[in-house]
Amino acid sequence: MKMLLAGATSFAFELCGGHAIQFLKIQKQTTGLPYATITRQITQTKGMVGLLDGFLPWGAFIAVGKGAVFGLGHAGSMYALRGTIRNDAKPLSLSEPAAQIISGGVGGFFQGLAANPLLLLNTRVMTNAKFRNEKEMLSTSTSSFRLASEIIRTEGPMALMKGAHILAGKRVLDWTSRFFFVVIVEEAIKRRTQESQLTFAQKSMASIAGGVLSCAVTIPLDVMVATVQTHTKAGQKVRLLGTGSSILQSGGIGALVAFSTRGFVARATHVGLATLLMKTITSKLYELMQSKKLTTDRRLSDKLSV
């Protein structure tokens, strides 16, 4: 149930703005242009609908798939760790926050492997100018759907896994650091308020803050993935160390830092909201659904016992 809920909420988030933020971020990371210029280029033919280029079908598949796979991986890890979580009988065992952090990394790993082919296809659509020139979203979606067979035919089936090792590692670091920073912020709030339990608003604030702090750690890896999977690198083997070395030699450490942090604003916005969604809102919705189910079952049991 939690897997389905995570997939549904992730899809709604991406449709209602998450995909557009991702689009701006990837364009920023691969071109270095100002956000205003990127927005004009994306919307000049289709208007604001252009911000959904790549959403159908690949962005939608990513939204549902990454939410569902993460939810499954996280829930599976928490289930596997259930016997090691600290309680009064096992004071030296794993703490609940530590189990959450580990499970976040496990969920992220499986999410990275599952999402890589779809993310590559989505990135190719976002970074190929020919898709901006199509005037209707339907024609863009149709062309996007054909892209998978074109890549397999011209570059081979393994091309869809290009950058998978980076993405899987990035997703582990993404979700481990997100859960870690959320726990840090939550503990800071508890110390400040002298309360043992946080309100939903406080948990939400901690999720957003934790996501943004995580972004500061993982943004270089995010730029690497976009660089490897961009349309202009199709069929090429991208050597990231060589790319970084050439930037360092030509522009110095400042140029390398600027390149490695491209798209930080869009990335931080997306990560903060995604962490809020997956860490706090999805869990809250799941609790409400479970509570409603228990209430319904209790009422049914009472009726049967009368």
TrEMBL record:
<protein>
    <recommendedName>
        <fullName>Mitochondrial carrier protein</fullName>
    </recommendedName>
</protein>
<dbReference type="InterPro" id="IPR018108">
    <property type="entry name" value="MCP_transmembrane"/>
</dbReference>
<keyword id="KW-0496">Mitochondrion</keyword>
<keyword id="KW-0677">Repeat</keyword>
<dbReference type="InterPro" id="IPR051752">
    <property type="entry name" value="Mito_2-oxodicarb_carrier"/>
</dbReference>
<feature type="repeat" description="Solcar">
    <location>
        <begin position="95"/>
        <end position="188"/>
    </location>
</feature>
<keyword id="KW-0472">Membrane</keyword>
<dbReference type="Pfam" id="PF00153">
    <property type="entry name" value="Mito_carr"/>
</dbReference>
<dbReference type="GO" id="GO:0005743">
    <property type="term" value="C:mitochondrial inner membrane"/>
</dbReference>
<keyword id="KW-0812">Transmembrane</keyword>
<keyword id="KW-1133">Transmembrane helix</keyword>
<dbReference type="InterPro" id="IPR023395">
    <property type="entry name" value="MCP_dom_sf"/>
</dbReference>
<keyword id="KW-0999">Mitochondrion inner membrane</keyword>
<comment type="similarity">
    <text>Belongs to the mitochondrial carrier (TC 2.A.29) family.</text>
</comment>
<keyword id="KW-0813">Transport</keyword>
